[in-house]
Amino acid sequence: MASSDVARQPDQGVRPLSLAGHVGFDSLPDQLVNKSICQGFCFNILCIGETGIGKSTLMDTLFNTNFENFESSHFEPQVKLRAQTYDLQESNVRLRLTVVNTVGFGDQMNKQESYQPVVDYIDRQFESYLQEELKIKRSLHNYHDSRVHACLYFISPSGHSLKSLDLVNIIPVIAKADTISKSELHKFKIKIMSELVSNGVQIYQFPLDDETVAKVNTTMNGHLPFAVVGSTEEVSVGNKMVKARQYPWGVVQVENENHCDFVKLREMLICVNMEDLREQTHTRHYELYRRCKLEEMGFKDTGPECKPVSLQQTYEAKRQEFLVELQKREDEVRQMFVQRVKEKESELKDAERELQSRFEQLKHLHANEKAALEEKKRLLDDDQSSFSKRRAAAQLLQAQSLTANGKKDKDRKNYVGLSYVMNVTVKAPADCAAAHGWLALDYRHYTTVPYRYTEQVVCLSVTLFWLHVKYPPV
Ligand SMILES: Nc1nc2c(ncn2[C@@H]2O[C@H](COP(=O)(O)OP(=O)(O)O)[C@@H](O)[C@H]2O)c(=O)[nH]1
Ligand SMILES: [Mg+2]
Q1: Angle 419-423-427 from CA coordinates, rounded to 5°
Q2: Nearest to 163, CA basis, from 105, 77, 226
Q3: CB proximity list for 319: less than 8 A, separation 6 or greater
Q4: Mind listing the pLDDT tens digit for each residue in 450-467?
Q5: What residues are neighbours of ligand 2 (ion), with CB under 5 Å?
Q6: pTM exceeds 0.85 for this model
């Protein structure tokens, strides 16, 4: 049997021995106390309740001091939590106290959502502690533990709603108990407790395992929820000054157990059960949080056949699982990539084919247009060459006609000269002359010109006829 197994089972194989004289380990509790006193203590209280219900006043009354109190309005858009830490000292015991107050709790239309920021806050504190615990190099001895040890849930005497917050030690209190009559208060307490039971809300039960406090705790469990009155005002009652609320009809003494349960709350919360609240937070609520978190991360104490597995084994198994999963994902991604590439390739090929066919169409169109243009060009060339020919012929003709014109002009002059003769002599063929513009013109022009060569009439008439044939009028 391994030595660790022996250590775990102290009753088996362990022999009780009596000591012959003083050894000294009976001072262990003192050592522990001294060490604890040296280190100091820390305690964190969360006060849940609507604005103005008396949270700050009760804290001031409980710890007999004036904490910083921030007035908050009823118009907060959402619930916030405000934490303030103070260093307190009583005798030689130092206490690092954190008071967390809800701001704007229950002031919104949707009351259900008021709880979420509270739950988140509680979880965040557990998470910070877990992170510190999981560090390789951790310093828990000087770590500021902000986990909530006690949650005072303030219930208004005029209606209430308490939701399950299984994450912390809840101590329900009826605030401003001076505003409710004694008989109403009694009924109200019974009603609240039965509602808590029927709704399955777990509240903190003062522990009964320590017999020194079991009796008082049993009695106190029967007084829950505590009906409290808060006040820091000192009023003279008899021959001493007491904390009280003074009214025209009388004085409500905070520390008078006939008036309210303030003393019970202080006794239970601070004097008797503070250490148990701290312990419960660590061993019950934090342990639960830690277990769930580690299980979420895949850590387990036992394997498939209920065999114990070490953290190292779980880590290795988890790592292997992760690597397999990673490989699977990688294969999937690769396959997906190949598939995508194939799809893209086929898309590109389709596009290429389409482009090619479009190109062929355009090429065909272009060839047709080119052929048509060439045909046109050929026709134009033909036209041009025939035009050039005609032009050359025309130029030739022009040149010829220019040469001829010189002679024609000369002839025409003669002819014109002769026309004088005709005009005079051939008056009769005026019809003939009218048929020819120029002759008619000449006729009109020259009719008035006197003509003297009448003796040559016949000869000139023949000449005129010849001229008329050779140079027809234009
Ligand atoms: N009647 C009555 N009034 C109280 C009591 N405790 C506080 N108050 C008053 O209620 C008001 C709001 O108190 P406060 O502690 O600031 O409430 P908080 O917003 O919850 O912190 C103040 O005017 C207090 O004097 C109480 O036990 N009884
Ligand atoms: Mg306040």
Answers
A1: 145
A2: 105
A3: none
A4: 444 444 566 676 777 777
A5: 56
A6: no
